[in-house]
Amino acid sequence: CCSFVDVDAGTLALTTIMGLPAVSVASDAIFDISQIASTGLDIRSLNGVGTVALGSKVLGIQSPSGIFGGVIADGGIGGGNGSSLSVGLGDQGFTWTLTGVNTYTGYTNIDGGTLALVSKAASPTPVLEFTTLARLISPALPLGRQSRICLAMDR
After folding, report:
1. Could you tell me which residues come within 8 angstroms of residue 56 by beta carbon, excluding any fewer than 6 positions away?
2. How far is CA 3 from CA 10, 22, 61, in A?
3. Backbone phi and psi for residue 43, each to the nearest 5 degrees, phi listed first
4. Which residues pair with 67 in a beta bridge?
5. Do 24 and 43 meet the contact criterion of CB atoms below 8 Å apart?
6. Positive or negative CA dihedral for 72, 73, 74, 75?
7. Which of 23, 62, 98, 112 is disulfide-compatible with 90, CB 3.0–4.6 A?
8. Full-model pTM
9. Please, which residues bridge with residue 127 across strands?
10. What is the pLDDT along the chain (155 residues), one digit of tens a residue?
């Protein structure tokens, strides 16, 4: 497809998978993957301050960098919940910061690099999974009774 997708206004709702190397979502705009036929979508990076609607899909962000200050949520046009976020491909060089009040309910997998959560609500997910090369920076990690952190060890 293209090297960069900039969702400036309205809703970009995908129904088929296409190569999306980088996505930016402006305020009041929506990037919706809830209707794609597969279980998820991989993109290179995600930035901006808009809304990302996942439905019940997994959004893979391969080489995140910068800041996403919008909302990553279940739902969308296709509906669904239990969506998840998978960040990184084992690359230790990235730092990606989430500052928004995210509401997706699935897991968050961090594979290398650093995920920085600026507020308690930046990651609502009850499960955070890390590889041995991943780091989490958070002033107030929202761990409740049903929360867990999984550390994957290379053998």
Report:
1. 34, 74, 80, 81, 82, 83, 106
2. 20, 6, 14
3. -130, 165
4. 97
5. no
6. negative
7. 112
8. 0.81
9. 148
10. 578 889 999 999 998 877 767 899 999 999 999 999 899 888 888 999 999 999 999 998 887 788 899 999 999 999 999 888 888 766 667 788 888 888 888 888 887 777 777 765 555 554 555 555 556 655 545 444 344 444 444 43
Tokens encoding 147: 């929360």
Beta-carbon neighbour count of residue 74 at 10 Å?
20
Tokens of 17: 């998978």
Query: For residue 16, which amino acid is it?
Result: T
